[in-house]
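Chapter review: from sequence to fold.
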Amino acid sequence: MKEGKRIVVMGGSFNPPTLAHYKLMKVAIEELEADIGFFVPVSDAYLKRKLRHSHPPVVLSPELRVQMLQSMCIDSRMRVCEKEIGTIEPRTVPTLMALQEEYPEAELYFVMGADKLKLLTHLTEKRDFLKSFRVVLFSREGGAINDTLKGEGLLTPYLDHIVTLPQPEGTETISSSLIRSRMLSGESCQDMLWPGVWELFKEFTPDDFPDAINQFKGEYDFLSNRFGCRFVWKGLQYGNAEAAFQSSKCMDASERKVYAGCSADKAALKGREQAPFPGWEDARLDIMGSILRAKFEQNPSLMKKLTDTGTCILINGNNKQETYWGVDLYSWQGENHLGRIIMDIRDKEIQR
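The token string follows.
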């Protein structure tokens, strides 16, 4: 007989949630005679960082991922915990601590696969994880996993906090990444999804997930305002768009001329000291559009490279927390005005 309340916690991207997620949760609840099983989807910002190098980056909205998980909760013990939605980073330990505060008398069991043993060791060493919480460890190795655990020095004192269970048959071949891959290739993935999730996911096509260029670097450095190229704007020749943009703060042409020969770095430094003319803030989007049209229209080779990006979403990603012209790649917040202007120039050129 069990003693006290038991809660199973399964964290993950759930992008989308799979039939394997449901089966693992169901088995853990049944084996532990748990009172509650929480699915905890990660934040949107973390998921976008994780998948930003995938092509194309198939990222389902947090609202949709929650809705999909809720469709799987046909067992009254299964619930969706939204504590990490809206945060910036994965928060396994803080989430478990928050749940422990809500259920102070409960034993919390965090679901992990045997392939996460290194993570479990790290959490135990750095955060005393197994002193506070318990773990459900799913493995295909059968009894061998217990021998492995005994060989992990840091985990040995906490073996009574680790419950090992055999991985349900068939779940080892199911993954969210395989489902996304099938969708993109036009193959059915219905066999790997809970019926309610399938009803929501089947509506998507590859067109819903255009590829993205997340930073204007490397082969895409020509999209950056700091890229060296000559063009004329308002009667003066500049060597980069940054110099032209910083010069736009000046009312007088003779003042703007000072920027004409500046490198991008020098122009940016001078621009910080330049007080913009009244109304410049309100006009800066139109000004940037005018400068970038001059840059690309007067450099056909750059325009060709731009149109070759096709339907890619152009994101001026940065690690400087700049969120007006670009997107902060950590929080994934930003208005991306520079990217939007360049996409508008591209789309109009393609439509000609």
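Two observations follow directly from the output. The longest strand covers residues 6-12. The chain has 15 helices and twelve strands.
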